[in-house]
TrEMBL record:
<dbReference type="GO" id="GO:0000387">
    <property type="term" value="P:spliceosomal snRNP assembly"/>
</dbReference>
<keyword id="KW-0508">mRNA splicing</keyword>
<dbReference type="Pfam" id="PF04938">
    <property type="entry name" value="SIP1"/>
</dbReference>
<dbReference type="InterPro" id="IPR035426">
    <property type="entry name" value="Gemin2/Brr1"/>
</dbReference>
<dbReference type="GO" id="GO:0032797">
    <property type="term" value="C:SMN complex"/>
</dbReference>
<keyword id="KW-0539">Nucleus</keyword>
<keyword id="KW-0963">Cytoplasm</keyword>
<protein>
    <recommendedName>
        <fullName>Gem-associated protein 2</fullName>
    </recommendedName>
</protein>
<comment type="similarity">
    <text>Belongs to the gemin-2 family.</text>
</comment>
<dbReference type="GO" id="GO:0097504">
    <property type="term" value="C:Gemini of Cajal bodies"/>
</dbReference>
<keyword id="KW-0507">mRNA processing</keyword>
Length: 194
């Protein structure tokens, strides 16, 4: 992808790994498309209130949680044994992402890519980026294509700056770069066979 930084020595995934990730991603997309209506019909938990599409700050808090959004250190809540999704963010559950229109998927993807342009990569961000990429329908709109290329470039920049070779982080960044370059860019932009 033009503008992507090459992987530093020892950070580049093997071709076999890349092919396996593309195959896994393709299977996830096909399963999502097959079961979208089922998941859309499932009731959301009472604590899940999805923001309106145009609410950028609301989506960032919803996906990443208030701790990351507000850059508060994750202190242990010993008194609270349950998970507070307001603090830690909602995971990209199928019942949530299946309700999102293509316009909302693209918009939320843009919000999170903009966030990532200024902030560090986190597992929460990675999960949401993967889920939103899986929800993108082909043929991609030009703005979606531009967004995912921007995402791959940002991942390559962060990967180059990674000093301690954090295996999980490098793998996550490589995964996103791989999917954008090998899944979305290498295929024609026609619909996938069902």
């Amino acid at each position: 992808i033009s503008g992507c930084q090459p992987a530093p020595e020892g950070y580049s995934p093997t071709l076999k790994w890349q092919q396996q990730q593309v195959a896994n991603f393709s299977a996830v997309r096909q399963s999502l498309n097959k079961h979208r209506n089922h998941w859309r019909s499932q009731n959301l938990d009472s604590n899940v209130t999805m923001p309106k599409s145009e609410d950028e700050e609301g989506w960032k808090k919803f996906c990443l949680g208030e701790r990351i959004y507000s850059e508060i250190d994750a202190l242990a809540d010993n008194e609270n044994l349950g998970i507070d999704y307001i603090k830690v963010g909602f995971p990209p559950l199928l019942s949530i992402v299946s309700r999102m229109s293509q316009a909302t998927v693209t918009t939320v993807l843009e919000y999170l890519i903009n966030w990532f342009g200024e902030k560090k990569f986190t597992p929460e961000l990675g999960r949401w980026l993967y889920a939103l990429l899986a929800c993108l329908e082909k043929p991609l709109l030009p703005e979606a294509h531009s967004l995912i290329r921007q995402l791959a470039r940002r991942c390559s920049e962060v990967r180059v700056l990674e000093e301690n070779k954090n295996e999980e982080q490098i793998s996550a960044l490589n995964l996103i770069i791989c999917l954008v370059s090998r899944y979305f860019d290498q295929r024609d932009l026609a619909d996938e066979p069902s």
